[in-house]
Each structure stands twice: as structure tokens, then as C-alpha cells.
Amino acid sequence: MSLCSFSESYLLLGVTPVENIFIQDYLPHAPGDYVRVYLYGLMQCYHPTEDMTTERIAHLLDVTEDTVQGAFQYWERQGLVQRVSDNPPSYQYLNLTASVTSESPMEKAVYKHREFNTKMQQLFGTRLLHPAEFMTACEWVEELHLPEEVVLIMVEHFIATKGRSFQFRQLNKTALQWAEKGVNTVEAANDMIMRDSAAYKTAEKVVRQFNLRRAPTLDEVALARKWLEEYGMDEAAVLVACRETVKGRNPSFGYLDGILSRNHTARSSQDMAGQLDEKKRREDAVKALHDALGIRQMAPTPGELESYQNYLAAGFEPGAVLCVAKGMGGSGRYDMEDLERQMTRFVEKGLFTEAEITAYMDQQKLLREQAARVYEVSGQDSRVTAASTAQMEEWLSMASFPVILYAAECARGTKLPVQYISKLLREWKKAGIDTVEAAKRQHGAVQPAGGAPKSTPTSMQYDQRAYTPEELRALTAFMEDDDDAK
Fold first, then answer.
1. How far, in Å, CA of 109 to CA of 120, rounded?
2. Per-residue pLDDT tens over the stretch 83-135
3. Per-residue 3-state assignment (H helix, E strand, C coil) for 34-58
4. Looking at the whole model, is its pTM more than 0.85?
5. What is the distance between the alpha carbons of residues 372 and 363, in angstroms, rounded to a whole number?
């Protein structure tokens, strides 16, 4: 027990001296809770309590312990207290008048930059900077002549790349480099950071890919940052995409941005190369469709590329799509919209492979040729339509083609040849007649006197031609849509 001490009542009835300089210069600008902590701690200096801790002060002042710690950090930056230890936290109050008038190195290097120190500490959040670290930062300002705002930008950039736990001495080399390069403005500091960034380096390489002899602009660096950070691409993926810009007369970052935006799911150079190769395959496939349809001097549009992709997604083989386009003919009568309608019809028919579609198209061409021959024999001057092929299919379900030709010969000269042919074929099928000879006998038996043909019908002299698949594909193309409507 000490020889002399205050009584407990003295603590309540005594006074704690507060210098006017504190009230005038510090109190007006400090947070209210920080002032309360300072004053309570000042009282503890005059009337110490052995068990006093930051936790107990927080309880007595009805604030959080973080507030108490933040307050002492604040006053430390202001030069009013000095940290003695971190665990447990311990502070010494400094004489205010001496702190203001002192010419000590601490005063010159630290307390002179109180506002700077406060901003520096704010960058580190909950990590408490030591006086030595403040001293180091102030040396960059005092000895290297780096402006305070430049130092803050440098430290903030280092925090963004290294985290808050780095040691200040790690920044000495960077601070020296900036000083040697004359980085003395905010603009110059931001430019240095930009040049040190991955986005800037990527933009530099893109500029070289474009054979431009200049540095990238801020807007170009911003685009590179989007590719790397927002899209998550690596630099190699960006450079692979540069090869696509040769298609444009004046390659630019904007043109490249369009390519990368359309392929933004690619992350690596392999991913990008794969997507671009696939896109080229689709473009080549659509160009082949253009050639088959007779479409000239037109680059594939995004809509056409999407439609082609949809054909493949629906289950069509690439060769099947081209087969349909070739079947429509290269006269230029049809366009990609006509092809879309034809592909829809094949979906409805459930035909997706090249072999299935080729067989179907060969059958349709044969039906059109047969219908044309029936029209010729029956004396009709009519154009073969899609309805004609449907009629031909119905007739073939009732009789063989030679029998149908004989019915066409019989219908020659009638007012409604098609209806007459259908009538004869239905009657012959009902009677079980399946040869030309039997049809002749039946038809002759029902003809009025003198109404039977006097000579052998020309249809009986017709030898059905055998067509190769190549010859069939060279015949008439698909019928027009208005024929389908009929």
C-alpha cells in the first residue's frame, strides 16, 4: 500500500484538469464518444484504478469496447496519447502543451500530419498501425517529397492487391520508384497504378496485336479490365480472340469487345479457340446454304447463324440441312426464310437424317414426274403442284402407275379428267383389277357402241423410265408455298 493516496470520496468530489487547448482545438472536431473516452482516461491518470480495462471503460460509459479502442487510436493519431502495449492495451497521456510546441522528431514527422495519419488508419480498418508505421509513411512525404494524397493512393492500391496485413517496409521500394519517376499528382499516381495492373498489360498486348505504336487509352484499359475481371477471362483468351479482328478493315477495341461479349463464357485460350472455331464452322455451313439456294454476296447474319444452330439442336444432321437447301435449287427463288419453313415441315414429318430426307425428296420428285406424265397423257395443260403429288400418292394407293396412265388415256377429252381418273381407279380397285389388260377389258365392256378406242392407247406404249438418285435430285425443286396453300 502506498504511503499516500486519495480517499474514495475524493474521486467523486475532486477535479480533473483539462487544458483549454484540448477544448478549443480538439474537442470540436472529435466524435462525442471519443471525447468521453479521452476525458475518462484522463481522470484515470489522476485517480488510477488498478482493475481498469478497455472492457470496463466501455461498460461504465455504455459504449462498445470497439468504440473505446477506436477512441484511443484516434487520440494516438492526434498525438495526445501514446501506446505503451497492445496486450493488454495500455496508453500514456502526453502533455498537450509539450506536444504542440515540441520540436522532437515525432512532432516533425507524425503529429505534423495528423489528418494524413487519420486517413491512413481508416484505410486499414480494424488493424491498428504502430507509430513506427506512421513514421515510415511520413518519411515518404518528408524525405521523398511524395504528396500525402499520392501516398494514400499508393497504400490503398497495395492493400487492394496484398491485403491489410503487409508490412510498411514492403512499400519502400515502390515509394522510391514513384519518387524517382516524379509521381507528384493524383492523376500521375492513378496512371502508375493503371500501368502496373493486369488490365493495362493486357491492353498493351492488344495494341501491339493491332500494330499500333502507342500506349492504350484509359477507355481501352477499362475494356480490358471488364474482360479480365467481369468475364473472368485470362489474357491468353483475349489475345486468341484478336485473330477474329482481321476480318474488319480497322481492328479496334470496340470490335474486339463485341467478339468477346459474344463469347464471354470462354475463360481460357482453349475455350476461346474452341468457341471461335465452332462459330467459323457455323458460318461456313450457312455460306454453303447460301450457295445452294443461290443467295449471292451476303455474309451470314446473326439470325441465320442462330437458326442453323437451332436446326442442329432440333436433331438435324448438318448434311441433312444442306440436302434440303440443295433440293430447293440454286436459282435464287428461295431464301433462308423459305428454308426455315421447309425445315419445319421435316420436323413435323420426323425426318432428321440426310438419308431420310434424301429418300423423301427422291420420292417427291418421282411423284411430280409421274403426275406430269399423267397430265400429259390425259391432255391437261396444268402445272404440277404439291397438291398434284398428294393426288398421285392417292392414285398409287389404288393402282400401279401403268394402270393409272391407262386411266389417264381414258380420261382424255373429258371435262374433268382428274375426277374421271379417280372414278375409274376406285371402280377398278373395287373390282380387283390390277393390270392394264384387265382394265381395258372392263373399260371396253362398259363403253357405249362406237365409243371404244379404235387404236391402242398411247399410254400403253409408255415405258416407265428408271431414274438414278442423282438424276432425281436434278429434277424439279420444292413447290412454292402458295401451291401448298392450294
1. 14
2. 888 888 888 898 877 665 554 444 555 567 888 888 888 898 888 888 778 88
3. HHHHHHHHHHHHHCCCCCCCHHHHH
4. no
5. 14
Q: How many helices (H) and strands (E) are present in the chain, helices listed first? A: 27, 2
What are 25-64's pLDDT values in tens digits? 888 888 899 999 999 999 888 888 778 898 999 999 999 9
Beta bridge partners of 406: none
Which is nearest to 397 in space by CA: 361, 428, 439? 428
Distance of CA 451 to the CA centre of its chain: 79
Cell numbers standing for residue 433: 383389277
User: CA 291 to CA 326: how far, in whole Å?
Assistant: 9
Q: Is there a contact between 178 and 147 (Cβ–Cβ < 8 Å)?
A: no
Separation CA 399–CA 408 (nearest Å):
12
The H or E element containing residue 417 is helix 417-430
Helices 172-180, 131-142: inter-axial angle, 10-degree rounding: 10
Cα dihedral 402→406→412→417 (10° resolution): -70
**What element of type H or E holds 67?**
helix 65-77
